Amino acid sequence: MSKNLENEISREQASFAVFCIENLADELKISGDKVYKMLTDDSDILDNYIVKHYEPLHTQGRDYVISDLIECLQQKGLVK
Predict the structure, then answer these.
(1) Element (H, E) at 23
(2) Burial level of 24, CB count in 10 A (0-12/13-18/19+)?
(3) Is the pLDDT of residue 1 over 80?
(4) What are the contacts of 5-12 at 24+ separation with CB within 8 A?
(5) Contact, 51 vs 1, CB < 8 A?
(6) How much is the pLDDT for 7?
(7) pTM for the whole thing?
């Protein structure tokens, strides 16, 4: 997690963030490290979307969540 939320998120939110990173990496065929960098260093998607909106997001299916996150990355110009 990024430094500013490191001590403020629940175990469930952290697990969900890992789920998102791993599944995005699989879907995009890139490393988890690269996905993490895109979600933290290159954007604020991890803190201000995945963690912030954990409650509604974690109730959705994998395909919906990954599609939604890819759309966020596209809007930021990080993936095509």
Answers:
(1) helix 11-28
(2) buried
(3) no
(4) 5/47, 5/51, 9/51, 12/54, 12/58
(5) yes
(6) 55
(7) 0.87
pLDDT in tens, 5-60: 445 889 999 999 999 999 999 999 999 999 999 999 999 999 999 999 999 999 99
Cα 10 to its chain centre, rounded Å, is 15
End-to-end alpha-carbon separation of the chain, Å? 25
And the tokens for 51?
Answer: 């963690």
Which of 45, 36, 42, 37 is closest to 65 using CA atoms? 45
List, as one string, the DSSP characters of 26-48: HHHTS-HHHHHHHHHTS-SHIII
Residue boundaries of the structural domains of the chain: 11-75
User: What angle is formed at CA 36 by the lines to CA 22 and CA 33, rounded to 5 degrees?
Assistant: 75
**pLDDT of 3 higher than 50:** no
